[in-house]
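Troubleshooting entry. Yesterday's outputs looked truncated, so today I'm pasting the complete records for two proteins to confirm everything comes through intact. If either block looks cut off, that's the bug. Protein one:
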Amino acid sequence: MYSVLDLYTENLSRNLITTFTYNKQGQMIESDWTKSDSTYKYNRIVHFRNRKGRRTKDKVFNKNNKHLKTVTFKYEFDDKNNWIIMKHYEKRQLTKAIYREIENYE
């Protein structure tokens, strides 16, 4: 497991420090950030993955480490086992769907 620190200025007025933590397979398992603006809603997201490395769940926390929400992910795949639809659910309600088109070359 290792972490990467990313520091940059957002909108030239606020500093944003982000730390990404990765597992041995190089997959992000946590993102943690702070802002000078105390109204920033989320501070940390823990990413859960299945054996194939796909995100299955995110747990979102505020700056006081209070759990705010859990987002679960469901996938639909093409005939080559690429995910083409990733659905986000909060409290069993669909909140977002990401569609992607993959062009295969042979």
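Protein two, checking that the full record survives here as well:
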Amino acid sequence: MTLFSNLVFRGVGRDPKIGKKKGGIKVHTVIIANLLLTLVQRSLERYWERMLQHPPCTS
């Protein structure tokens, strides 16, 4: 199985009358990526708040 195989990206559920399926792994991957970016952004915000409050000493 490859990363972009039809087995991974096929839709789930029964076929409606129009012949298309809803959902699949792509939707869940986008949600996980958005969550990860939000967590990274919050972590960076906290880091820069601390760095700006207590800048490193330069000599």
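Both blocks look complete. Sanity check on protein two: The chain has two helices and no strands.
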